[in-house]
Design goal:
Helix content of chain B: over 70%
Largest sheet of chain A: 2 strands, antiparallel
Number of strands of chain B: 2
Oligomer: heterodimer
Largest interface: A-B, 34 and 34 residues
Number of domains of chain B: 1
Number of helices of chain B: 22
Order of helices and strands of chain B: HHHEEHHHHHHHHHHHHHHHHHHH
Distance between the termini of chain B: 23 Å
Structural class of chain A: mainly alpha
Radius of gyration of chain B: 21 Å
Number of strands of chain A: 2
Helix content of chain A: 55-70%
Number of helices of chain A: 20
Order of helices and strands of chain A: HHEEHHHHHHHHHHHHHHHHHH
Low-confidence stretches of chain B: none
Shape of chain B: globular
Mean pLDDT of chain B: 88
Strand content of chain A: under 5%
Structural class of chain B: mainly alpha
Largest sheet of chain B: 2 strands, antiparallel
Shape of chain A: globular
Mean pLDDT of chain A: 85
Low-confidence stretches of chain A: 496-523
């Protein structure tokens, strides 16, 4: 049992300790790469402890560690995971070594700074998922900003990188400032930063008698989280940041932190208010799906296409979360994981293309399939996963979301389903333009007569685990759903205490297996 | 007993005088470092003496002029630490440049004496004396890069404007003496309700606030700050942007809470306005600066604004937050100036933000330290700056100043832009021609210790602030609210 209370602390601080060690080692040869790989693999091993020992019948918060940090103000070192955060922590663990492998050659100068920042970023993200004390959570939340901003500003691709980094920082920092005000207000009302205490008080309507104050505080929370996701009108930073960021950073840039925070804190502390704003969020989600997909359709730059497709996919998650049905919530959470894997894989593949052709411009590419059979195989697998083909992970998530959202929000769901079609269109069109057809005019940056190799061993090693996960998560979804469903059920039940249930609750179990492809004939 | 209560000041004065006397005895070409180490040991003794005062009962000395309590001890320790780091970082700064380095060490000690007197005096004339001792020493130190036009300009500007502000303060003292017949804080507080001339009381409150507002460089009394900081030697800027400010804040706290408690409704509004003006002026002007020291000058104005926010909370936790913030700000700001001192040297080779490009490659450790201090100033979690801001804003929110908190946090958003711009500059690649200028002198042991102290303090205040927080809480409770 000792191990169980220590494991989260270990997971959190192994990357940080690794960062310190790397900072002290001399930057020679591939020392940094090997060091970072060792640290991230160790973290991955440690995270695997969680799903193996998690008690699925008991559910709730486990592996809890709760110590006093400061007496006044009452700040605690309180961490723990439940079905919601557990897989997100494992996902973060999985993506890290792959990110290191993807940056192996791409980052050739100042690799020490890169890997140190990368590992600090890792700790911050894991901390966000594990923290159950609002103060601690806010600490990790803000901390996650700094390494990311520096990674973009220092290791960005073009001269535009500093602007992109500033934009990212200011967008997220300004809204986080309001989040801090709301957290301080909560503390001044209740005298506690503890999430479990606050959510119990919220359920008993004891936080504040003023419904208006609660409403404003809930908006401050949601605004900060929605900016980080990003949700539709707040996505101004996204395309610049993704197109500038080095691959390993772009993989973890958007999505999971913000969406997790909405699920945990907005829904946990402000259940009634979240219910109240749900129609707006559903609408924004649906608009985001359509908007992101349509803009992606007209991009010529691969990275910008990835950015807008990210917006589209994350909007799907928003749609599912704010449906407040078990199916919708389960799907939303599942889709966060899917996006982490498939979205990460597509960015890695694009990065590998860039390493060879020195361009992300689709007009300069074409006919690559003949030269790089392995590359095209993996690219197509990832594409199929992203557009939600049955048997792949994307299908399970999207299907659950749409089926959970449809009963209450028919029109918006119908509109969002259109986005699925658009999504298939831009992805397949992209594959066609890049890999098939005539060989593109050779980019000027490349000397003539150079041989472009297919995927090497390192690249294959970083991509096949992703491809395997895409398939496994599509076929054996109940394995993951087991824990997610526990949280989804709790979250769907929560607002019911505050407001009447709005929709028929669907059992996710019936939809968990991807056997209902007829219902997705629209593809 | 009287002497014991002033022991830290006495130690500093004696050390300063001895340094003064020893300076001409050393041969002209000889290194003045031993004098510096002597000054450092004197500062350490003074700190220990202050620490011992913590166990004494609260009491006054010298005919009620001085009151020693947890509040004064807190600021004594803070000032001693700042002076210690300043002395350590300037040991090698003047080596081979100034001819009177020994005097410099003595001046630092005298300035510290003045500041410490300010924090423990409970009598306006005594405050004035402390203020003058510290100011005159700082005026001279600002001009210590001799032969440099900018340094002389800085000293002269500081002197003229400073004297002007001190005159305001003194005028306020005269008026309040006329209105209440007393210059001691308790006498004033007792005299105000019976005063025949309430207008005079309000006018004197305003004058005193102007004088102190100048010292803490709160807008609109901030105009001297950027020019003075730009020209003065870096270690001196590190000192004068933190220690005299902390002392002036201590005086401001004592004056407002002890001498003018009945006029709270008036000064609370004034301080509210000062806080908002300082935050906006500081941050918005800092956005436009190209010179690193000028930028930090405006940032110090903004930080004065954050401190004033804590003031408006009007409660024990507000005072504790203000005390804590002074300490946090001192740790990170002095740290930043230690790095600037080291990389720019006495010639001040690096001025503009662009000059710092490539620093990370040439001096990775110093750059990392500077980056850490800048992040702390932004208020990134697990640093002193974050906890400081957190306490300040939660105290203000507790007191119901929601708008002030929102404005304040908005400001910290604006502030990240220029800190980050600086930070990104440090980490961007440099043109090859500049590499030589960045290399600079190797870090000596003294500077290393100073830097380590600052980093450790910034980190400790961010992660385990309990000890300092406890002391700040005691300071707030014993001195001000007990009355």
């Amino acid at each position: 049992m000792q191990m169980n209370s220590m494991i989260l602390t270990l997971i959190l601080f192994v990357p940080l300790a690794g960062a310190v060690v790397l900072a002290l080692l001399p930057d020679r040869g591939k020392t940094m790469q090997w060091g970072a790989l060792a640290v991230t693999l160790l973290t991955l091993l440690l995270t695997l402890h969680l799903p193996y020992w998690y008690n699925y019948t008991a559910g709730g918060m486990q592996f809890v560690s709760n110590h006093q940090w400061l007496a006044a103000p009452a700040i605690r070192y309180h961490i723990g995971v439940d079905g919601l955060s557990m897989w997100l922590i494992v996902l973060t663990g999985v993506l890290a070594p792959l990110g290191v492998l993807a940056s192996w050659k791409a980052i050739d100068t100042r690799s020490k700074e890169f890997y140190v920042l990368f590992l600090v970023q890792q700790t911050a993200m894991l901390g966000v998922f594990a923290a159950l004390d609002l103060f601690l959570y806010y600490g990790f939340w803000e901390l996650s900003l700094v390494p990311m901003t520096l990674l973009i500003a220092v290791f960005g691709r073009t001269e535009n990188r500093r602007r992109a980094a500033m934009k990212y920082f200011l967008y997220t920092f300004l809204t986080s400032a309001l989040l801090l005000v709301a957290i301080l207000w909560l503390y001044s009302r209740t005298g506690s930063f503890d999430f479990t205490v606050l959510s119990q008080l919220a359920a008993a309507h004891q936080i504040s008698p003023s419904s208006q104050a609660l409403w404003i505080a809930s908006l401050a929370f949601l605004l900060a989280f929605a900016t980080k996701v990003p949700v539709f009108p707040l996505h101004g930073w996204l395309s610049d940041a993704i197109s500038e960021a080095p691959t390993a950073a772009a993989m973890v840039l958007a999505g999971k932190l913000g969406l997790y925070s909405i699920l945990r804190f907005s829904l946990g502390i402000f259940p009634a208010e979240s219910h109240r704003i749900a129609p707006l969020m559903i609408a924004l989600g649906a608009i985001g799906v359509l908007y992101g997909s349509s803009i992606a359709l007209v991009q010529t730059d691969l990275k910008r296409l990835a950015a807008y497709s990210t917006l589209g996919h994350l909007s799907f998650c928003v749609l599912g979360i704010f449906s407040f049905t078990i199916a919708g919530l389960d799907g939303g959470i599942y889709q966060i994981l899917n996006h982490g894997i498939s979205g990460g894989a597509i960015l890695m593949l694009m990065g590998m293309l860039y390493e060879r052709y020195r361009t992300y411009d689709m007009r300069d590419l074409g006919g690559i399939a003949q030269k790089m059979p392995w590359m095209v195989t993996l690219f197509v697998i990832t594409t199929l996963s992203l557009i939600g083909l049955p048997m792949f992970n994307g299908f399970v998530g999207e299907f659950l979301i749409l089926s959970g959202t449809f009963p209450a929000h028919e029109r918006w769901t119908a509109a969002a389903t259109l986005g699925v079609i658009l999504g298939a269109a831009y992805m397949l069109w992209m594959v066609q333009r890049v890999f098939y057809g005539n060989l593109g005019p050779k980019p000027k940056a490349l000397a003539s007569g150079i041989v472009l190799p297919d995927l090497g061993v390192r690249e294959q090693m970083s991509l096949w685990p992703m491809a395997a996960l895409m398939l496994l998560m599509g076929i054996a979804s109940p394995f993951w759903m087991r824990a997610i469903d526990l949280s989804g059920t709790v979250l769907a039940g929560k607002p019911a205490a505050a407001a009447a249930p709005r929709v028929v609750v669907l059992s996710s179990a019936t939809f968990a297996a991807p056997d209902a492809d007829t219902m997705k004939g629209g593809k | 007993m009287n002497l014991l209560r002033l022991l830290p000041e006495v130690i500093l004065t004696l050390t300063g005088v001895l340094v003064m006397l020893a300076e001409p005895l050393l041969a002209p070409g000889k290194s003045r470092k031993p004098l510096g180490w002597f000054a450092i040991s004197g500062t350490l003794y003074a700190a220990v003496a202050s620490m011992c005062q913590l166990h004494q009962p609260v009491g006054t000395a010298f005919y009620g002029m001085v009151q020693v309590d947890a509040f004064s001890v807190f600021f004594h320790l803070l000032i001693c630490s700042v002076v210690l780091v300043t002395l350590l970082s300037s040991l090698d700064y003047f080596e081979g440049f100034a001819t009177h380095a020994g005097e410099y060490f003595a001046l630092v000690l005298f300035a510290a004496t003045g500041m410490m007197l300010m924090t423990c005096s409970v009598e306006l004339l005594m405050v004035f004396i402390g203020l003058e001792i510290s100011s005159i020493a700082t005026y001279i130190m600002a001009g210590f890069r001799k032969g440099k036009g900018a340094s002389a300009e800085s000293a002269l500007k500081y002197f003229l404007l400073g004297s002007f502000a001190t005159a305001f303060f003194l005028y306020g003292v005269a008026l309040i003496f006329g209105a209440t017949g007393s210059t001691s804080f308790s006498g004033i507080a007792a005299g105000i309700p019976n005063s025949q001339t309430p207008l005079l009381v309000v006018a004197s409150l305003g004058m005193v606030l102007v004088g102190l507002g100048f010292k803490v460089s709160a807008a609109p009394f901030h105009v001297w700050t950027p020019d003075v900081y730009q020209g003065a030697p870096s270690p001196v800027v590190g000192l004068m942007s933190t220690a005299p400010k902390a002392a002036a804040f201590a005086v401001l706290l004592r004056v407002t809470y002890m001498a003018f408690p009945t006029l709270q409704h008036r000064w609370a509004i004034l301080i509210w306005v000062l806080a908002v003006l300082s935050m906006f002026t500081g941050n918005l002007c800092a956005l436009l600066q190209r010179d690193a020291k000028r930028m930090l000058a405006y940032s110090s104005i903004a930080h004065a604004g954050y401190l004033l926010v804590a003031f408006t909370a009007l409660r024990a936790d507000g005072i504790a937050a203000a005390c804590f913030y002074s300490a946090a700000y001192a740790a990170m700001n002095v740290g930043a100036f230690v790095v600037l001192t080291q990389v720019a040297g006495v010639e001040e080779k690096l001025r503009n933000l662009e000059d710092f490009a490539g620093l990370a490659q040439q001096r990775p450790v110093l750059s990392a330290a500077l980056a850490f201090f800048l992040l702390s100033m932004i208020g990134i979690p697990f640093t002193a700056g974050f906890f400081g801001k957190f306490y300040v804003f939660s105290a203000a929110l507790h007191a119901g100043h929601l708008w002030l908190v929102i404005l304040g946090l908005l400001n910290s958003g604006i502030a990240c832009y220029y800190y980050l711009r600086f930070l990104v500059n440090i980490y961007s690649p440099a043109p090859a021609s500049k590499a030589e200028a960045l290399r600079g002198k190797p870090v000596t042991i003294a500077t290393g210790i100073a830097l380590a102290l600052c980093v450790a303090a910034t980190l400790a205040l961010g992660i385990v602030p309990g000890c300092v927080l406890h002391l700040a809480g005691r300071a707030a409770a014993t001195s001000l609210l007990a009355r």
